[in-house]
Design goal:
Elements: E1 4-7, E2 10-12, E3 20-23, E4 26-28, E5 41-43, E6 46-48, E7 61-63, E8 65-68, E9 87-90, E10 108-110, E11 128-130
């Protein structure tokens, strides 16, 4: 089956999609739950209010892609094509998703729920977590150098197993760096 190239189009709701490369496209209110998007290519695209929950992203390309107000539960981003990978998330639900071992430097997560997300061994250098809920998110052996966590909350990061040089934290969130010591911190 021949792949298509689609550019500068807007897709609303459940328009029929064909496997291929989508450049500078906008997707609104699309329900992609459990959809197989393997080997699709999205370049300079924006997804607004879409549901990607449990979608398959094996070798999917995301280059300069914005996800806004999207539901993305249980997504295996760690199976995406790593070449040129770059995306941002705003007002998204990413609970139970995986970024395991990914190199996603300078990624922005804004006003998003990242509960029980796997960031183990990921390189998030220079990323931003702005007002994100990171309860039970895993940062085991991750690179968090120069990452900004100042407005995020509920994270637990072990500085003995994770690189956090020049990362930014608020005073209120500093307890998330001491969880492994099982100590009580009073406000």
């Amino acid at each position: 089956m021949q792949e298509v190239f689609i550019q500068d189009q807007t897709f609303d709701k459940n328009d029929l999609w064909t496997k291929g490369e989508y450049e500078n496209c906008i997707f609104n209110h699309c329900n992609l739950t459990e959809t197989d998007l393997s080997a699709f290519k999205f370049i300079d695209c924006t997804f607004n209010m879409c549901n990607f929950s449990l979608a398959k992203l094996h070798k999917t390309t995301f280059q300069n892609v914005k996800f806004v107000d999207c539901k993305m539960l249980g997504i295996r981003f760690d199976t995406c094509n790593e070449l040129g990978l770059s995306f941002s998330f705003e007002n998204c639900l990413l609970n139970h998703s995986s970024f395991y071992k990914m190199k996603i430097k300078k990624t922005t997560f804004k006003n998003s729920q990242l509960q029980e997300v796997d960031f183990a061994e990921a390189d998030l250098t220079n990323s931003l977590f702005d007002n994100c809920d990171l309860i039970r998110a895993t940062f085991d052996h991750s690179i968090l150098e120069k990452v900004d966590f100042r407005t995020s909350y509920n994270y637990s990061i072990d500085p003995t197993t994770t690189r956090i040089k020049k990362a930014k934290f608020s005073i209120a969130g500093i307890s998330g760096l001491l969880d492994q010591y099982d100590i009580d911190i009073e406000k």
